[in-house]
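Morning!

This is the sequence you dropped in the shared folder:
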Amino acid sequence: MATETVTNPLTETEERNLAAVSNVLEFWNTHDVEGILEFYDEEIVWKNMGLEEAYEGKQAVREFLTRLMTALPDLVFTVDHKIARGDNVSEQWSIRGTHLGTFMGVPPTGRQIVIEALSMVTMRDGKFLRDEFYWDTRKVMNQMGLMPSLAATQSAVGKGVLWFTVKTSNVLTPSGRRARGARRARR
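The structure's back. Tokens below.
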């Protein structure tokens, strides 16, 4: 049995919201922070799930954008897919750039990184009101050369390094000692 795709025509609100999501890209890609902020509601709340941070208000978003664009001065932002329903827009997007400034507390590595992410956006009157974006920090740290790939951890050497790291952590850190004590208590 074939599955038929069913879509309804976009409402005026959905068309306006998708236009805002598309039109802001020009400002991202020219690194115009103030231009980007024109698309944001005064009460904007960004939840950066990858960094476990929240930015409330335009000033906090401005500070994050400035840090990001300093870290990746050749940043290019693309949106690969977007879906609108009422005042909600979901996006699949990516940022590409060269790590030339501190990012995630990591000094510049000079490496190319790609941040692939999903956003759940709530709009108000055609402006971004809330944005929760999800991305894989481990993958970005791998691209910076700070973590091995998951495939590398499955080799004999990789498993040995992980085993040694965990055992060392169990001796040297309070949380590791608690974990070791809990294992011993179960025996």
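Headline: The chain has a mean pLDDT of 90.

More detail when I'm at my desk.
O.
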